[in-house]
Known about the structure:
Elements: E1 9-10, E2 19-22, H1 28-31, H2 33-45, E3 49-51, H3 61-65, H4 69-82, E4 88-91, H5 94-100, H6 103-106, H7 110-115, E5 117-119, H8 120-130, E6 141-145, H9 149-154, H10 159-167, E7 170-174, H11 188-191, H12 193-209, E8 214-216, H13 220-230, E9 235-237, H14 239-247
Parallel strand pairs: 2-3, 2-4, 4-5, 6-7, 6-8, 8-9
Antiparallel strand pairs: 1-3
Helix pairs in contact: 2-14, 8-10, 10-14, 12-13
Amino acid sequence: RGRSLAGQVFAPRGAAKGTVGLLSGCVMDPWFPDIHRAAVDVLIAAGYRVVVPIAQTCCGALSAHDGAADAAKRLARRNVAAFAGVDLIVADAAGCSAHLKEYAHWAGDGDDLAARVRDVTEFVADLIYAGDLPTSPVDRGPVAVQDPCHLRHALRIMAAPRQILTAAGYQPIEVDPDGLCCGAAGIYSVLEPEASAELGRRKAAQVRSTKSTLVSSANPGCEMQLRTHLGEAYRIVHPVELYHQAFIGKAH
Length: 252
């Protein structure tokens, strides 16, 4: 679906408002490069220079989930060094954003990086609110909104994805007022496949009840889980991808 952005630098037209470092991620870079491309395009459209440091590595969330604390700390220290000097660090996977914001625990000098981390949904929503990015007058119809646990419960971010979708011309439809886990949950689907599948089926039933075949999710594990249990009749897309397609065109 696209090539890796690792090691690349993307400049806006005119003077940059700041420099954003994009987390490549061990899942996002190989499997979801279109989301990366959409995020980069939207950020440079807002006037930011985007760098994707070649020296970065996995955020360490999956190691932490598996109890491999030493590995998680090693990865965190490497990323602290790789992202030194950028104004903000943006992740477009909610699980990565949540883990990066806990780097004060995982790296001795990780508190500075943690303070500069933004999930791409919160950052893009802020840019829309500030007028740095446009809103659409076009009605593009409904979109069911699935809240990843790392975004809703860990980061307490709920409004941002909906603000992005609304700005792109969509009508957000609520899937689940209680925020039930979809069952992906990092490596939970590997460790507890039966329980994970049951949660996936319950989440799919909630999505089907909305009657929308377009679904927004801001985490790769959730997206894969939804695809598995909803099937090909449903389109599952990151909210920033939908915003990108509304204003900039199809992701490269």
